Automatic annotation (TrEMBL):
InterPro entries recorded: Gly_zipper_2TM_dom (IPR008816)
Membrane topology recorded in Swiss-Prot or TrEMBL: Lipid-anchor
Protein name: 17 kDa surface antigen
Keyword Signal attributed: yes
Signal peptide location: 1-17
Keyword Aminoacyl-tRNA synthetase belongs to the record: no
Length: 105
């Protein structure tokens, strides 16, 4: 019984490792290069592509800065409106600023 359990344990550890030993042919036609932190690759159609940032960090930083500026500008009564509008405007502005820093050709 112990030999059987040992064989099952050894097999269960060897089976998940089999795909890692396979030859990776799916991405062999793409050539990755990096230029100032921007990744470029050549697609199957021969055109070059690059990975652009989705602007998440700029969105968060812009929203935080916009909320602070909006709260400072709106000094009368309830300041939630200025905070919310400032956060929304700052988020949109921060996202666009970050997305435009990478120029893909």
């Amino acid at each position: 019984m112990n030999k059987f359990l040992l064989a099952v344990a050894a097999t269960s550890m060897a089976v998940p490792a089999a795909p890692t030993l396979a030859h990776n042919t799916g991405y062999s036609h793409r050539h990755y290069t990096s230029d100032n932190g921007v990744q470029y690759w050549q697609g199957r159609d021969g055109r070059y592509y690059c990975k652009k940032s989705n602007g998440t960090v700029g969105l968060v930083v812009g929203a935080a800065a916009g909320a602070l500026v909006g709260r400072a500008i709106d000094t009368r009564g309830e300041r939630a409106t200025g905070t919310i509008l400032g956060a929304a405007a700052g988020a949109l502005l921060g996202r666009e600023v970050q997305r435009r820093t990478v120029k893909c050709r």
